[in-house]
Amino acid sequence: MATGAWLTVIAFGIQVLIWIFNKNELQTWCSLSPFGTAKDSERAYKSTKEQVESMQKVLLEMGLVEDKTPKDFPKVYPTFEELINHD
Q: Domain locations in the chain?
């Protein structure tokens, strides 16, 4: 095999190793969720509101959702705190 082909194979192998061992934002979010491996850490989400806000940030950073300002994103469901304090 030519030298260029070997360099390509080595570069591809290094890239695969980086993909395997490098955590992205979504993996971090999943580990901090109530079902994740770091659910008992200090960085774990304390409320559903905090968890949802963090998920929206992650999806925005990954480019999976568009950036919507609060006026474009209407509040449909009450928060857990609103449900508890309801008369």
A: 24-84
